[in-house]
Each structure stands twice: as structure tokens, then as C-alpha cells.
Amino acid sequence: MSEDTFLVHGGRNPLLQEGAVNPPVYHASTIIYPDAKALRHGAATPLEGFRYGRFGTPLSFALEEAVAELEGGYKAVSVPSGLAAITATLLSFAEAGDHILVSDSVYFPTRKFCDQTLKNFGVETEYYDPWLGAGIKERIRPNTRLIYVEAPGSLTFEIQDIPAIAKEAKSQNVLVVMDNTWATPLFFKPFSHGVDVSIQAATKYIVGHADAMLGLITAKDEATWLKIKKKVMELGLCAGSEECFLGLRGLRTLGVRLRQHQENALRLAQWLESQPQVLKVLHPALPSCPGHEIWQRDFLGSSGLFGIILKTEDPGTIDKVLNKIKPFSLGYSWGGFESLAIPLDPGICRAASQWEAGGLGIRLHVGLEDLTDLKQALGRGLKELG
Ligand SMILES: *Cc1c(COP(=O)(O)O)cnc(C)c1O
């Protein structure tokens, strides 16, 4: 089945639900068993089927199966947010005395969790330059448990050489965990590039309408999946039923939405590159962007999120630009249908690498609005720089 067909039909079976097109939402904690034998059997096999609301419902299983199939992995686990997917994965594998390698370009709340909770639990985090590639080899220690990658980097858009990192990791029995939110399972296939665990902040493109928090963790094989599933059950994490419904609904249009985000963002990025007020455009699909060759080699497309660096050092000017660019709304998160903008903080936290932008910037999420309107809006904003 081709991917677009799978997006429409995966994770549902109308004939098993009285013909209704979409699966029902199970609001459930208790599951009733027909007799004592069945109850004892259910208690002894918590991972087989519908056993207790917190362990998953037929709806969360359907969402997990669909996303695992798209990512190309064995099975997924749904959790209440993208960040919960990240923290639960790290807690599934890193133990006291372990060392983990985390990209210096990582999503900031991931960094915070490593620097606070994991540190308190006796796990040492070492940040590495996102451009390191095969050079990661020298950083791997006997107690290195996992390497955490994210491509492109949150806010700074470095594309990592994941196959090169995964090759070194494999040769020393180290796990590779990836935050694959930017590309979604459609534009990057983590398991064909050596990743062991892939994380989606489904809050972004999978839900796609800025109306739910949801995370998914997909594992490459049964043993890896079991470790994560057991930890998620131990932590008491479970995705909400309505949220799973919205995630599954989002999948139906993920392909068309993403292609439109890609088209609008790429055309805007190309146009911005030619504007005199713009110093740099951080968009991996542009040949001028560092890491473009790796993106071209490994990725199947680009999404709607990218950065621009403007020829100004004055935060007040950035604010003036931000106030002039409606229909871009000002707000955090991304992946929904509308265009969004936030200032790009120049004081970006780095431990192992330099990030010198040469100016102040804006992170844009390009939505599904008309391209001409978006271009005009940014044109108005750029005029603030003269
Ligand atoms: C938003 C985001 C997350 C966290 O997702 P939430 O659902 O907001 O917790 C994780 N990684 C990346 C790259 C993100 O952009």
C-alpha cells in the first residue's frame, strides 16, 4: 500500500465498528472480565490487548500501529506530550553511572531534563557538536548508553549525519534515539538510517491543528519497545483518549498538509534569501544552508519550520517586524495549519559548539495560507529594517 493510501486507511476498520468511518473514542479506566479465570489471565498479561485504561485502549493501539508503520519501526507507545515521549525514553535506557551523548542543538526542554533530572539521578550528559558525524566515535565511552540526535536542530536547523553517527553507535552497542518531529514519519525514515528509537511530538504535525498535546515513541524491535512500554506503564503515563482520536484524525490529512507546508515554506525561504534585509536563511532544503547535502541524501522532504537571520542586532527592530506580519501569529509550538513566528534567541544555550548567527533572527512556521499573502506580510515586516 502506498503511503498516501495508508494515511487514509491505516489504523481503522469500519466494519468492526458498525460501519462508522472513524474508530470510537474509548473513555475507560476499568475493563470488565467475564469471569475469574479471564480476570486472572488479564492481570497476568497486561501487554496483551485491552487490560486497563492506563495501559492503552483500542484507539491508542490503532494510533500506535499506524505511526509505527509510517516510521518503519516495530511498535509505538503513545504518551501525553512530545516532551513526555523524550523523558520516558531517556528514563527507559539511562541509569545511574551511565553517560549519554546529546546533540548541542537539542530542543531546549530536553536539555533541561538532562541537566536537572538525569543529573540528579546520576546520569552524565555530554553535549556534542551537531556537525560531529563519525567523529562521535571519540566521544563514546565504555559507559555510554545512548546517543541522542535531532535533525534539523531545534531553532538552529543543523542537519546531522545520522547514518554516520549510527554506524559508530552500532559498532559499540550504543542506542541511537532521535527526535524526528520536524520531518515527521513522512519525510525522514529513521529506522532505515540506523536509529533505534524515534520520537514524535505529535502535538505538531500529526495532530496538525494546534488543539491537542500528544507524543509517540516508536522502537525498532520488540525488546526495545518492551523496555519503553514497561517504563511508560511504571511512570503512569498514558495519552488522553480525545488526543489519540485527534492524532489519528490528523494522520488522514498529514500528507496533503505537509506537502503544502513544504511548498509554501520553501518558496518563502527562496524569496527571503534574495531580500537585502536578510543575512541568512536557515532552511535545510536551500543549497546555501549548511548540511544541505546531508538533507538531500537522507530526507524525503522539508516541513514548514525554518529560521531567518536579519541584518539587525536590535531586539526592538525584531519586535517591530513581528508586529507587522499578520497573518503570521505570534506564539510557541508549530505544526498547526496557521503561520507562526517567534524571535530567535541569540543567547542560545551551547556547551560544545559555537552558534554565531551574525544578527538577530525570527523562527517562522509557514502555514497553509495563501503564499502571496504570506510574502506580502513578511515584505511589510522587512521594511522595518529600512
Ligand atoms: C514541541 C517539541 C517537542 C515537545 O512536544 P510537546 O508536545 O510540546 O511536549 C519536542 N521536540 C521538538 C523538536 C519540538 O518542537
What does this structure look like?
The protein has 386 residues and is α/β, with parallel strands linked by helices. Helix 5 links the parallel strand 2 and strand 3. The chain has 12 helices and 12 strands. It is globular and about 75 Å long. The termini are far apart. Strands 1-7-6-5-4-2-3 form a 7-stranded mixed beta sheet, sandwiched between helices. It has a 5-stranded mixed beta sheet with strand order 8-9-12-11-10, covered by helices on one side. The structure holds pyridoxal-5'-phosphate. The site of pyridoxal-5'-phosphate has 13 residues, from helix 4.
Q: Could you report the average pLDDT, rounded to the nearest whole number?
A: 96
Report the major sheet. Answer: 7 strands, mixed
Please bin the fraction of helical residues: 25-40%
In N-to-C order, the SSE pattern is HHHEHEHEEHEHEEHHEHEHEEEH
The tally of helices reads 12
Which stretches of 5+ consecutive residues score pLDDT under 50?
Answer: none
Query: Strand order of the main beta sheet, please?
Result: 1-7-6-5-4-2-3
Structural class, from helix and strand content? alpha/beta
What is the rounded distance between the termini?
Answer: 53 Å
Kindly list the characteristics that best describe this protein.
alpha/beta; 7-stranded mixed sheet; binds pyridoxal-5'-phosphate; 5-stranded mixed sheet; 12 strands; single chain
SSE layout and pairings?
Elements: H1 3-9, H2 36-44, H3 58-71, E1 75-79, H4 82-93, E2 99-103, H5 108-120, E3 124-128, E4 144-150, H6 162-171, E5 175-179, H7 184-187, E6 197-201, E7 215-219, H8 222-235, H9 241-273, E8 278-282, H10 292-298, E9 305-310, H11 315-322, E10 329-330, E11 340-344, E12 360-365, H12 371-382
Parallel strand pairs: 2-3, 2-4, 4-5, 5-6, 10-11
Antiparallel strand pairs: 1-7, 6-7, 8-9, 9-12, 11-12
Helix pairs in contact: 1-9, 3-9, 4-5, 4-8
The chain binds pyridoxal-5'-phosphate (PLP).
